[in-house]
Amino acid sequence: MNELTQAQLLERVTESNRPNGNPRVQKIVARITGDLFRAIDDLDISPDEFWAGVDWLTRLGQTGQYGLITAGLGFDRLLDIRGDEADRRAGRTAGTPRAIEGPLYIPGAPLSKFEVRLDEGDTQRGELMVMEGRVVSIDGKPVAGAIVDVWHANEIGRYSHFDPDQPEYALRRRIETDAQGRYRFRSFLPPGYAIPPNSPTSELFAAIGRHGNRPAHIHFLVTAPGLRTLTTQVNVPGDTFIDDDFAFATRDGLILELEKNTPPAGYASLGVTSAFTRVPFDFVMQPAVDEDESAPQARLARAVG
Ligand code: DHB
Ligand code: FE
User: Fold this and answer.
1) Across-strand partners of 280?
2) For the chain, which residues make up each domain, given as ranges?
3) Which phi-psi region, left, alpha or beta, contains residue 121 (left: φ > 0; alpha: ψ -120 to 50)?
4) CA 34, CA 25: separation in Å to the nearest integer?
């Protein structure tokens, strides 16, 4: 049977999956292939359009930008919405809301106890701030020895590692909470972020008439034994894009409150000698229901492991 209708073709493509394959992967591939066959048919996608799309995907992969596209098309937030729905069904609604990791996390940042400076060097790169608070469980108990992994963009909205002009692990640190569950770090309020210009990502968003801006934000990955790993990000209030985030990641409960003109007493160990912006924030964590939930690895390591 070498003459095939579309339906027969799809059946052949799917049927040719062999019993020694991974059943879950087979099911997902069959479904997505079928959905794409249907889209090509419904939208009458021409061969030129199809191959232009394949070329774009190739360039997207070559530039490592798949994670930028997933955030901009809402997939990352979709996974959070599904996580929230599962939490509601399980009665696990307390605690700091989750928010997308984004594509720009790098594991293994330098580790300090209790406090650290993220803003190396003497130049003032923005509004000086100290963010501080505690890691607590949902019953209010402080969590000693939690690891607060923090990362944010530099003064022109770029992230180290992905930006060759910054030192390794610039603006990326891990902080271990003290006996009272406290952490604090000094940095500057980061500006917003925009997707890289002249890239496969910017091509797509220009073509669909959308901007690629994210409001100013700071990322966190908080881990502690027995508690569910918390991936979240907080927003600096007042940003133009706070209600129009390219990645749909801003959430109530994650907008910071800034205490401007805080006197420097008590902050000498962070080199703070004049009035600064204090940013209080506690991370409230759910108990883990299994070991996976408290596994300290980030997204990719969890998926691979
Ligand atoms: C993207 C960038 C970010 O800094 C982020 O937090 C989320 C998404 C992006 O380019 O898609
Ligand atoms: Fe980010």
Assistant:
1) 132
2) 1-45, 70-304
3) left
4) 14
Note the pLDDT tens digit of each residue in 199-218. 999 999 999 999 999 999 99
Ranges under pLDDT 50 in the chain: 305
Question: In a 10 Å sphere around its CB, with 0-12 CB exposed, 13-18 middle and 19+ buried, how is residue 39 labelled?
Answer: exposed
d(CA 143, ligand 2 centre) in Å: 26
Q: Which atom of ligand 1 is nearest to the CA of 153?
A: 4
Q: Which atom of ligand 1 is nearest to the CA of 212?
A: 10
pLDDT per residue over 252-268, tens digit each?
999 999 999 999 999 99
Name the closest ligand to CA 151.
2
Which ligand number lies closest to the CA of residue 247?
1
The strand order across the sheet containing 172-176 reads 111-113, 172-176, 147-151, 217-223, 230-235
Beta bridge partners of residue 250, listed in sequence order: none
Q: Name the residue of 78, 214, 250, 254 whose CB sits within 8 Å of the most ligand 1 atoms, as the mutation to test its pocket.
A: 214
pTM: 0.94
Ligand located closest to 60 CA: 1
Sorted by sequence, the CB contacts under 8 Å of residue 5 that are 6+ apart come out as: none
Mutating to test ligand 1, I would choose from 63, 104, 232 the residue with most ligand atoms within 8 A of its C-beta, which is 104
Position 41, amino acid: D
- The span from the CA of 98 to the CA of 228, in Å, is 11
Count of Cβ atoms closer than 10 Å to residue 26 Cβ? 14
- In CATH terms, the fold of domain 70-304 is Protocatechuate 3,4-Dioxygenase, subunit A (2.60.130)
